[in-house]
Amino acid sequence: MRYLTLLFLLLAGLAFAQAPVIPPIVGLEYLQSWRDGVAAADAGRDPLVVACFGDSNTEAPTYTVALRTLLQARYGDHGIGYLTFMTGRGAIPGAPRLKREGKWTDYDTSPGRDTPPPAPYWAMDGFWTVTEDADAAITVTHAAFPGDMHYRNRIHYQTGPGMGAFSIFIGGWEAARVECAAEHAGYGLSAPFLAGGFRIGKITGKVALLGFDYDRMKMVRGVNQLPGGTFVHALGNGWGQSTHLAPTDEAAFKAFFDAVKPDLITIMLGTNDMHNAGVSTWYGDHMTTIVGKMRRAAPGVGILLIACPEAGQTKPGAALEYATVAKEVAAANQCAFWDWRPLMGANSRRAEMLGYFGDGLHYSALGGSVFANLLLAQLGFDLNDPRHWPALRALPEEDARAAITIPRLPALAPGGVKAALAGEPAHTIWQVDQPVAELRFAVAGAALAVHAVVRDGRCLPAEATWKDCNLDLYVSKIGSWAGDENEKHRGYHGIVRQLVLKPTGPATKTFTAHLSGKDDTVPDFPWQVTPLAPAGYEMVALIPMTSLLLDAKTDTFLLEAAAVTAPGPGAPPGFNRCFLRGVDGGAFRDNTRFAEVRVKEQ
Predict the structure, then answer these.
(1) How many domains is the chain built from?
(2) Which helix (H) or strand (E) holds 529?
(3) Residue 8, domain member (yes or no)
(4) 33 - beta bridge partners?
(5) Which residue, 310, 466, 493, 547, has fewest beta-carbon neighbours within 10 Å?
(6) CATH no. for residue 235?
(7) Which is nearest to 236 in space by CA: 62, 453, 48?
(8) How far apart are CA 470 and CA 457, in angstroms?
(9) Longest C-alpha distance within the chain, in Å?
């Protein structure tokens, strides 16, 4: 029996000795930006952003997709991040649809695919596409997403001498014209724009597109209601080597990093280096150049160098040699380093047998998941930490009514309204992320004084008229009801007056009135309209309180304002509201959207 016990202990000891040891990340102290980014994402302040540079195992949907999935399962799906306009790179699940028309020439910095253009390079992943075809176009269509969501897009392109221009279309509307010409070659980014899809066209001259990035958000009054999130930018190139990334212009790194604001940069290069040139000193020199450029372009952002595992066709000893060089480069440049080769075994044979590699060289989806889970664990990210789950926290109620205070002034003439209200706070009407109107109010004598500035009112200069634009005012007494069943349960009963003020030209205007949604007698009151350049108007009005179903002594009432605007030729008019608390449904809904006005005696 004693011998059996000893045998059992011996076997148990052998089993314990063979248990894998997860290699730690060396230099975790250099990754403070990652820890700060996690804390910001936990608090819902900023997204957690990782920029991953590498070869085919970074380009293909392997560990970067798994890393994105793991983190977005905590912080929510806010989008993929940066994508190239090339159609031949590794597909990413959930990416927007891409359709190209006309003639485009694709460039790739790695000579394994195409002859690369002369250095310096500008694309972060080594891919970009060029055209001089006036009929060329690229259409990007985002996936439909439930809820009142928006996609914020941004185009990355090359600038320089002799470069041309392109336009960004949203539907049939030419939202922006982008000029690419510059005195020196450079990295350009368009202004961000909200659209569920867009088209790049109207090409003039030579245009070189690097890619685009996007994020999914919910905008109310210019404020993103879904802050935080996660972005994992997969900046891999299938034939990528350190010799291909090193010539990237430092200004391009800076422009990209300034735009996406990474919390962590990972670099996993070396497999193609050791399988091609096979000179580790060259690899060390290139990696030193890359790290130096990135550190200067993104000061304070932690950089993690990851050693490549030993693949089936790797020359014996090469993986260890290159890992040693990468570790030395990391130590010399205050970067972190992770070598997980020991887990993969010689030639990654065990991992291949277990299905972690599809061909002994490239990770499968399963292998990418193993990689991502181990990486997060070694970074100190606890998947079970409840702080990483902001999506599961209770959201605040949105029923609170806006409250504003307006003054009570002596009677005014129309010409004195603007000056009398100049010191009052402006109440802004938003079109998702852009302010389109500002209004100021006061009770002046027996009238409601209004000063409104409406931008993007789409004035048509040829006719000096406005098309499909108006300002709507809704006024009701406290305790009134406008027809929403929900309001009945809250004890509101009564009536509401709606005025529709529609400018038709500098000297002419029309208005209509409704009472509880039905046509009503149009009240008579003085108002003036002044055109604003380039496409808007300014309005002052003195609306009799009695026509609003109120009296001049009323000290509290409910008020709402809305504007119908259009941001440019061909764009559909947008109905936008003031004092919004919930989602803008695009039309008058119920009194919970009203501001509770308190009139302040002077």
Answers:
(1) 3
(2) strand 527-532
(3) no
(4) none
(5) 493
(6) 3.40.50.1110
(7) 62
(8) 8
(9) 110
Q: Find out whether 238 and 54 touch, Cβ atoms under 8 Å.
A: no
Residues 245 and 357 reside in one and the same domain = yes
What CATH code is carried by the domain that includes residue 204? 2.60.120.1360
How far is residue 191's CA from residue 178's CA, in Å, rounded to a whole number? 9
* Cβ neighbours, 10 Å, residue 502: 16
CA separation for the pair 451, 417 (Å, rounded): 7
Which neighbouring-strand residues pair with 181?
Answer: 160
Which of the residue ranges 260-269, 459-468, 538-547 has the most confident prediction, judged by mean pLDDT? 260-269
Q: What integer pLDDT is reported at residue 148 of this predicted model?
A: 67
E strand spans, 43-81? 48-54
Integer Cα distance of 297 and 425 in angstroms = 42
- Residue 5 near residue 328, CB atoms below 8 Å: no
444-469 residue pLDDT tens: 999 999 999 988 766 665 556 666 67
For the stretch 215-229, what's the b/e string if a residue is b when 16 or more beta carbons lie within 10 angstroms of its beta carbon? bbbbbbbeebebbbb
Cα distance between residue 262 and residue 346, in whole Å: 34
Mention every residue, 6+ apart, whose C-beta is less than 8 A from residue 250.
293, 296, 297
Q: Do residues 44 and 105 share a domain?
A: no
Q: Which amino acid is at 446?
A: A
In the block, tokens 């060396």 appear at: 26
Of the pLDDT bands very low, low, confident and very high (cuts 50, 70, 90), residue 494 is low
Residue pLDDT, tens place only, 80-133:
999 999 876 667 888 999 999 999 999 888 766 656 677 899 999 999 999 999
Task: Please check whether residues 587 and 464 belong to one and the same domain.
Answer: yes
SS3 string of 168-192?
Answer: EEECCEEEEEEECECCCCEEEECCC
Reference 267, options 51, 30, 28, 26; nearest CA is 51
**Would you tell me how many other CB atoms lie within 10 Å of the CB of residue 234?**
28
Q: Which domain holds residue 587?
A: 403-601
Enter the tokens of residue 201: 């066209």
28/101 same-domain check: no
Q: Across the strands, what pairs with 155?
A: 212
The CB density around residue 182, as the number of other CB atoms within 10 Å, is 14
147/472 Cα distance (integer angstroms)? 26
Would you call the peptide bond into 247 cis, given omega within 30 degrees of 0 as the criterion? no
* Alpha-carbon torsion, ordered 412, 414, 419, 423, to 10 deg: 70
- More confident: 18 or 585: 18
Q: Which residue has the tokens 């500002």?
A: 438
Contact criterion met (CB below 8 Å) for 357 and 363 = yes
- 302 in the same domain as 328: yes
- Residue where a domain stops, chosen among 200, 220, 240: 220
Same domain, residue pair 264 and 380: yes
Residue where one domain finishes, among candidates 334, 357, 389: 389
Same domain, yes or no, for 246 and 347?
yes
